[in-house]
Amino acid sequence: MIFLVFFIGLVFSFVGSIPPGTLNISVLQMGMEYKIKPALRFALAVSIVEYPYAWIAVEFEDWVTSTPAIVDNFQLITAIVMTVIGVFSIWSARKPTEFSVRFNESGFWRGLVLSILNPMAIPFWVGITAYLKAQGWIDLSTTWLLHSYVLGTSVGVMILLTIYAFLARRLASHIKDNHLVKLFPGLILLLLGSYAFIKYFS
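User: That's the sequence. What structure does it adopt?
Assistant: Structure tokens below.
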């Protein structure tokens, strides 16, 4: 049973991390710039933050689902974060400063900051966990089962981001020295942030 809940957490984390967002676009950018080691450190930081976020979601599932305004605010926070990071990415790509260069090269610290500022993992895991429980696919009644499930969510996102980094490196040879590569993540994040704002206010 412990392995089963771990595997289910891993699979849903892997699949849930596929859509474009702040974190996987950042990994793609580093991969396309041949920064594999920083990209892997970035993925490690994201997987570390995923653990407490998923744990919070499981522990406070009933409270969060009974307060829809909380989920709505998470969406607004995500819209703001994506827009700000998008502007910062474009600005740092066009006029790099010492801080922006060090932040982009750091890998681990960049992943830690961006994942902490990306709390959509909480409502995502609230929804997924509630669904899995309703279907009878998982039992989180003991501490071991709960932490096996949460560990699976961390491992799943780590695996996906690692795959993204290596796939992006393979694409890098075709777009080497293309200035748009550095601007692309920022532009995508701006579009996603704008879409999130529109969705929130509509």
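The two ends are 43 Å apart (CA to CA).
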